[in-house]
Amino acid sequence: MAKIKQFRDASLSLWQSAVDEVVATRSATFRAQALAAAPGSSPRPDMADRMMREATAYCDAMDTSKALAEIVSGHVAPEALGQTLGYCSITAMKLARAILLGNEEEKQRYAQELGKFGDCDPLYAQAAKKYADYFLLQGKSVPYRVYQSLNDFVIDGQLPAQARVAIVGDWGTGQDAALNVLKQIARKNPDVVIHLGDIYYSGTEFEFENYFLKPWKEILGLEKRSIPTFTLSGNHDMYAGGEPYYAVIDQLGQPASYFCLRNDDWQFIAIDTGLHDHNPLGGGPTLLEETEVVWVKDKVQNAGERKTVLLSHHPLFTAYEDIEGSDINLRLQVQLKDILPRLAMWLWGHEHNLVIYGPYLGLERGRCVGHGAFPVGIDETPAEPRFPDVPLLKHPDGRAMRLDRSDGLYNHGYAIVELDGPAATASYYQDSDEVNPLYQETIA
Questions:
Q1: Does residue 164 form part of some domain?
Q2: Range of the domain at 62
Q3: Whether residue 66 sits in one domain with residue 100
Q4: Given 75, 103, 138, which residue is the final one in a domain?
Q5: What is the pTM of this model?
Q6: Staple partner for 356: which of 378, 382, 393, 426, CB 3.0–4.6 Å?
Q7: What are the pLDDT digits (tens) for 138-181?
Q8: Residues 242 and 325 reside in one and the same domain
């Protein structure tokens, strides 16, 4: 599988989205492919396309401050590489700026410059226009929904007492690996499916429609059967302003970006950590709206005999990455520390990994299940934890539980929570083996 790459920077992600869309629509057959009931293959452009390679290398250079010649090794001479990648993307960005400012003279100038440089794909001019459109959307306020009553966004009657709940994180790549994971989930006949967020690269309408909603409905058979499905707010979902995300949750029947799905014994509480991570320049780790904190605490503190599973896109803590230089999201910890001991489990994504943590910060079970689809090379995740004091559940021989690897990439997967009245088990699967979970636990 040809890899794609993400950047936790809205402007770079928007550029990827712009290039992706014009490349995807270059072929007159794309729409037919996307609409056809053939979810076994993905029409999404990847690094096999030259323009996507150029755009990603440009974003990598901007993100890391590396010289362009360091980004891609291979058959292109460094000076030619620098000219192509640097000239085409930078000139296209200048064109986009001229479009945003309404400067007709510069629009003509940079459009002509793109045309003069023979190695620049003609679609760069279209991508510049698309980027300008996305940039304007990003500047709008996210249409976040605030409850009017603490009883709002509570969903009763859709979670059976005996239920199979499938949970997958960071699934919205539109690639074959994502489709394969969802097929495995569908074969388990879940009663509920919950996505922990992130439609790549920046949650545009095009991406939500083609890389999330269409395959989601087709593979899960939502046109033929009615099962509740949900998708949380991730940072990438908000980079294009969030309106496409809210349009999709309306189609799914999801009341808001945070909700409480419950029966008499259990409640799954989803929180919105994506709202305050849509602008990486905002400073500091993400957090919840204060009104949402009040809502969440009300659900947990008034749960009665119900046990609570908390769901989010972002982690409370991490062993392998870092949160503004720390292992802990100190903002979320301050906001939610009072309810952590009351949670049966907290499942999150954001990191493209499966990590089973030991008790920490008063939380009995923290689980990272962000391994839904995004391709991660074996050299991209540290072999040893960056924060060794964060407890990890380990095999009897002392090894930390890790995903297996296939073809140089870590495996993908998902979690299945089985409810049986007040009892429950959680199983964590890899796509390399949909029968035997990598880890299984009783959570009540």
A1: yes
A2: 10-138
A3: yes
A4: 138
A5: 0.93
A6: 393
A7: 878 999 999 999 999 999 999 999 999 999 999 999 999 999 99
A8: yes
